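Why should sequence recovery work at all? Because a backbone constrains its sequence more than one might expect. Tight turns favour small or flexible residues, buried strands favour hydrophobic ones, and helices have their own preferences. The token representation captures these environments compactly. In the example below, the structure is given first.
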């Protein structure tokens, strides 16, 4: 997205989602994104079922991780430093899942985000992600070195 004020690139949850081909390929839709938050939706298809006939946990993780990415990238160019998930109930083919990500705390270039994946009012999974800002969105400077992307083109975005 481009800032209407000065033409610079603005990095937010919608920007990272627009570039996420994996999420779009699996039918994930971005419902809302704001500072430190995001809400996404995914319908469980037959292709997402595991050998037990329920949603494969990897797809539930994909939905939660994508919500996490949208929320933490609202603070700058961020990558995951780690994540874990607890599955509370199975999801079934035809279910529509919603993932809501919320920032819990930021310290330095680090952040902690919780994501609840629900089917209606029922919690399917709880996800906790830890993020790290790798580049300042305003200057392009690397958070660790202060060098710009032009100085270090090999740095991941």
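From this structural description, the recovered sequence reads:
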């Amino acid at each position: 997205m481009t800032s209407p004020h000065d033409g610079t690139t603005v990095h937010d949850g919608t920007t990272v989602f627009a570039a996420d081909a994996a999420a779009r390929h699996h039918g994930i839709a971005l419902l809302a994104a704001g500072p430190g938050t995001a809400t996404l939706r995914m319908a469980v298809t037959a292709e997402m079922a595991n050998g037990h006939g329920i949603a494969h946990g990897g797809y539930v993780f994909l939905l939660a991780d994508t919500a996490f990415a949208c929320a933490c990238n609202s603070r700058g160019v961020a990558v995951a430093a780690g994540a874990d998930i607890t599955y509370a109930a199975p999801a079934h083919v035809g279910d529509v899942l919603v993932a809501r990500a919320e920032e819990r705390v930021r310290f330095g270039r680090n952040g902690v985000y919780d994501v609840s994946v629900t089917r209606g009012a029922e919690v399917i999974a709880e996800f906790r992600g830890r993020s790290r800002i790798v580049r300042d969105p305003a200057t392009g400077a690397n958070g660790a070195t202060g060098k710009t992307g032009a100085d270090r083109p090999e740095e991941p975005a």
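A few observations help interpret the result. Strands lie at 29-34, 37-43, 77-87, 96-107, 110-119, 122-135.
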